[in-house]
């Protein structure tokens, strides 16, 4: 499998480390694990810098992890996985630029001429719906001098480049190139926008940036479901993750931490909930918390509480389902609500988290974005976000790798 990070147990790791000695600084095992030990000595040594580690070295660190080590003996990934630019580069190329990635939801482009833009790693993209209702995705780069073509979201009948006004249709073809009279051998058909493979699953829009696949061949919906969610596709559909939900609002947060810190926290199987989210813990029966691992998805579920403060936690309903979709997308379904968390890496130690909120159509009038954030959501969300800026002291010199949780 070519993926780097997979949900295993309740934590995000690819493989379990071959070594069991957490005191990696001591380099005691140089004869047995020389490449890994050498890398860590270099990382943590007084003269080390992030430049010391090349992409090749990042790959070497990944290769040191052994899936055969039982989960009971596994330790957390080293801090170098979370802070070195070369490691992020490797993740972009091996994780984010391969396979399906959630980038938005269909209500962002529900009508012809709707569009939205975004960025994944170094790739700027634009997604739109053309006159006939067909969804397209393109690299958001003008074919003339590479200006960013569109920004934000909204409605457009065509994309006009802000630099020299080359104009593209919503199907990507070049409609007009200004003042090119006299230019020899210029074929407009060769200067359309570069397409990206796009598909939908339920309420979500997915892109696939893999250069090895043809972006033009229409994606078959069953294949997409299988590739993105594996056998979980049906479980999510039958648990109310569907396109009938009404969109409510979006909140975005930029956090000073590696993108995996957010994902790790999500995947700790409720371990932190009784301590970090005491209020939420009142609304859940934590003894019923369970985690089930599938190919690309980890599903955590928990029964809702029956306590006296029910009115305060009514938003949770009787059952909560938390699905983590590899590598960075979370779907939370509880009561009449669904929210999604999309974690976008912005650098080794910075990420953006996009929260989108949906509600069952029949309840749309009963909850507004205002009371959503007055209720449990705002407090929990603020606490969730507040936990991350210090990256949980992941880079403290006193930090050691520890047992998984
Ligand atoms: S860069 Fe877009 S028209 Fe020149």
Can you put this structure into words, describing what you see?
By secondary structure, this protein is of the alpha+beta class. The protein has three domains: 91 residues, no CATH class; 129 residues, Rieske [2Fe-2S] iron-sulphur domain (Rieske Iron-sulfur Protein), CATH 2.102.10; 148 residues, Naphthalene 1,2-dioxygenase Alpha Subunit, Chain A, domain 1. It is built from eleven helices and 21 strands. The protein has a seven-stranded antiparallel beta sheet with strand order 15-21-20-19-18-17-16. Helix 2 crosses helix 4. The two termini are 24 Å apart. 36% of the residues are buried. Bound molecules: FE2/S2 (inorganic) cluster. FE2/S2 (inorganic) cluster binds next to loops.
Summarize the structure.
It catalyses: choline + 2 reduced [2Fe-2S]-[ferredoxin] + O2 + 2 H(+) = betaine aldehyde hydrate + 2 oxidized [2Fe-2S]-[ferredoxin] + H2O. The protein is α+β, with helices and mostly antiparallel strands and 405 residues long. Helices cover 21% and strands 29% of the residues.
């Amino acid at each position: 499998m070519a993926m780097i990070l997979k949900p295993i147990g309740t934590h995000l790791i690819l493989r379990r480390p071959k070594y069991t000695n957490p005191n990696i600084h001591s380099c005691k095992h140089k004869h047995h694990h020389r490449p890994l030990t050498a890398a860590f000595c270099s990382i943590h040594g007084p003269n080390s810098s992030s430049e010391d580690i090349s992409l090749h070295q990042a790959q070497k660190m990944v290769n040191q992890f052994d899936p055969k080590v039982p989960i009971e003996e596994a330790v957390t990934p080293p801090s170098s996985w979370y802070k070195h630019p070369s490691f992020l580069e490797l993740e972009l190329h091996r994780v984010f630029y391969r396979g399906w990635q959630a980038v938005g939801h269909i209500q962002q482009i529900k009508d012809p001429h709707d569009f939205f833009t975004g960025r994944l790693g170094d790739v700027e993209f634009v997604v739109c719906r053309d006159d006939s209702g067909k969804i397209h995705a393109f690299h958001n780069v003008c074919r003339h001098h590479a200006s960013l073509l569109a920004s934000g979201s909204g409605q457009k009948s065509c994309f006009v480049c802000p630099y020299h006004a080359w104009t593209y249709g919503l199907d990507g073809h070049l409609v007009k190139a200004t003042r090119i009279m006299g230019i020899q051998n210029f074929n407009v058909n060769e200067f359309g926008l570069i397409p990206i493979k796009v598909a939908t699953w339920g309420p979500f829009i997915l892109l696939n940036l893999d250069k090895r696949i043809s972006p033009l061949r229409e994606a078959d919906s069953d294949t997409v479901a299988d590739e993105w969610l594996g056998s979980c596709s049906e479980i999510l559909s039958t648990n109310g993750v569907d396109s009938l939900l009404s969109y409510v609002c979006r909140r975005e947060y930029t956090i000073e931490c590696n993108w995996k810190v957010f994902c790790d926290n999500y995947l700790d199987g409720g371990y932190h909930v009784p301590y970090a989210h005491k209020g939420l813990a009142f609304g859940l029966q934590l003894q019923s918390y369970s985690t089930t691992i599938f190919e690309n998805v980890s599903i955590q579920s928990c029964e809702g509480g029956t306590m006296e403060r029910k009115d305060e936690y009514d938003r949770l309903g009787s059952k909560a389902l938390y699905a983590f979709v590899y590598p960075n997308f979370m779907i939370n379904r509880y009561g009449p609500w669904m929210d999604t968390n999309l974690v976008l890496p912005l650098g080794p130690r910075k990420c953006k988290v996009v929260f989108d909120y949906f509600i069952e159509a029949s309840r749309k009038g009963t909850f507004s974005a205002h009371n959503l954030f007055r209720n449990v959501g705002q407090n929990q969300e603020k606490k969730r976000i507040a936990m991350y800026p210090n990256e949980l002291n992941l880079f403290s010199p006193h930090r050691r790798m520890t047992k998984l949780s």
